[in-house]
Design a protein that fits this description.
extended, Myb/SANT-like domain-containing protein, mainly alpha, 2 domains, signal, 155 residues, LIMYB, 3% strand, Myb/SANT-like_dom
């Protein structure tokens, strides 16, 4: 009986040892795969960024500089397209973006492309989100003339 018990313990010990070695082996395999995948993704991202930069240079695209008048025109065009039901989701459909792009470029004699309008739209959304978050703080009030938030020094 004792002999069977010791043999079983020894067999269990070797089984657990094999299991630990197997786990360590698979951990090494996964670490190796993760390392190679991250290197592939990094090189792919660098390649894509280089391609995008070269495309922008070919098209003559640069970071759009928006004046206050241009920003106001863009916001008014956005409001027009929301009222025209050309924003079925959180963004606009193709017709809405086309209208915004054409009217804006005509009015301000620019040649901005869709990506620049989309980026500006996202920047404005983030700015609005931060503004509304700021208004939720106790003690922050909005000046009715300038629409700028103000607060005392304690806030």
């Amino acid at each position: 009986m004792w002999r069977f018990f010791f043999v079983s313990l020894i067999a269990l010990k070797y089984f657990l040892l094999d299991l630990q070695v197997g786990i360590l082996h698979w951990e090494a395999v996964f670490e190796d795969a993760y390392y190679h995948e991250s290197r592939i993704l990094t090189s792919h991202q660098e390649k894509m960024a280089t391609e995008l930069d070269s495309e922008e240079l070919k098209l003559g695209l640069d970071c759009a500089q928006w004046s206050d008048a241009e920003e106001e025109t863009f916001i008014n065009l956005i409001v027009d397209q929301v009222r025209a039901n050309n924003s079925p989701t959180s963004s606009f459909n193709a017709e809405g973006w086309k209208y915004i792009r054409q009217k804006f470029n005509e009015k301000h004699d620019r040649s901005y492309v869709h990506a620049q309008f989309k980026n500006k739209y996202n920047v404005l959304r983030q700015r609005r989100k931060r503004y509304l978050t700021l208004l939720n703080y106790t003690g922050v009030i909005v000046d009715p003339l300038t629409k700028n938030p103000t607060s005392n020094e304690e806030v």
